[in-house]
Amino acid sequence: MKLPAVEIIKEGELEKRSDNLLQLWKKKTCVLTKDSLTIYANTQRRSKSKELKLQSIKTVDCVEHTGKFTYFTIVTKDNKEIDFRCSVEHNCWSAMIIMALIDFQNQKALQDFRTQQVNDSASPGKERRMVRAP
Length: 134
Known about the structure:
Layout: E1 8-17, E2 25-33, E3 36-40, E4 48-53, E5 57-65, E6 69-76, E7 81-87, H1 93-121
Antiparallel strand pairs: 1-2, 1-7, 2-3, 3-4, 5-6, 6-7
């Protein structure tokens, strides 16, 4: 049985700051899709290190540009901060993650709206009232 192909938005190298006491920058191979950012421990992508689902990301912020690197932080919904940096040549990572996050949130909002419409139309005893602005 074949798994459905996942559309890759961006693939390449990012550096992630470690969580330990020394907070060293480590190179990671990353794959951004419409649903997640997958961070692999090695370039062969054999060992999946971590998958950040876009639904678990609150924001991407603290973008700073230096001469050599672009730095940014992904903040999860449980307020965990994950620091990344990429070389100036590959500095669109933060923008691509932000755009994927916005697209994901928009799709979720549309889905929730449609679900609400279906639920409202399925409840015939419920009156609809138009509210006028003051």
